Fold this sequence. Notes:
Layout: E1 20-23, H1 41-50, E2 52-55, H2 61-75, H3 78-82, E3 86-88, E4 95-99, H4 101-104, H5 106-113, H6 115-125, E5 129-137, E6 147-151, H7 152-158, E7 167-173, E8 184-186, E9 193-196, H8 206-209, H9 220-230, E10 233-234, E11 242-246, E12 250-253, E13 264-271
Antiparallel strand pairs: 1-9, 2-11, 3-4, 4-5, 5-13, 6-12, 7-11, 7-13, 8-10, 8-12
The structure holds ligand 6CS and fe (iii) ion.
Amino acid sequence: MTTAPERTADLYPTRGATEVATPRQDPVVWSEPGTPGPFSGDELGSFERDGFAAIDQLITPEEVATYRAELDRLVTDPGVRADERSVVEPRSGEIRSVFEVHRISDVFAGLVRDPRVVDRARQILGSDVYVHQSRINVKPGFGASGFYWHSDFETWHAEDGLSRMRTVSVSIALTENYDTNGGLMIMPGSHLTFLGCAGETPEDNYKKSLQMQDAGIPSDEALTGFADRHGIHLFTGKAGSATWFDCNCMHGSGDNITPYPRSNVFIVFNSVENTAVEPFAAPVRRPSFIGARDFTPVS
Ligand code: 6CS
Ligand code: FE
């Protein structure tokens, strides 16, 4: 059992009696300007400004086919379905997500180590990185539910013990993301304000929050203010496209009532300088398949 180091001061208070906004106290791009890597200077600039960078084609159509086949294999494997790392859709009972997919599947483990992926994470985070969380999201058609507005960092700080905003996610589309089938929406620039949410974290919150999050949800007033200030950007793109986004972006996605699945693989890289300590606002840690406690750098 790894013992987490002593917790540092809490720069981002959340899940107290009232909602409280705190200006970001961390860089967005941690590497020095001009640091070589797959992102161009302009791409890093827009990542800094907006909190995200979209790539039209990160992986080839042939590679998409390989990952889609692997996703289909996993979601039809009874062993995977029975695994606690699988989360099902509240309505249909179909598989919604499979967590720790980079440990379950050698195919997805290869994607994590791919230089087009991990070198971008290192470039943004300015250090070696490890996987804090990975998952495939199936988001089948005909009613798959979305994810309400939230900041991932708010959860990863409160429940997984990530101290600083030195974490980046990449969502790689494995099916076409239309403007109708429940695509990712991000409020550009929202990553520069941390919105501490009101309301304590229930015991075993993750058992519910991964289907329908309720702790760590911003108020309507706060969301209205964010949306008025930042707008809302909807990401569309072909299979193989990718969206890199900062851990503190306010984001969400709608239900998918079309016949067309919106499947992606979602990988969260954390800096090895920001390893998880004790949760800042939860009674206990979440399981390691959701918030990693093995900090071995990706190599
Ligand atoms: O709780 C989490 O860690 C997950 N929940 C959502 C809605 N997004 C981030 C993350 O995968
Ligand atoms: Fe999220």
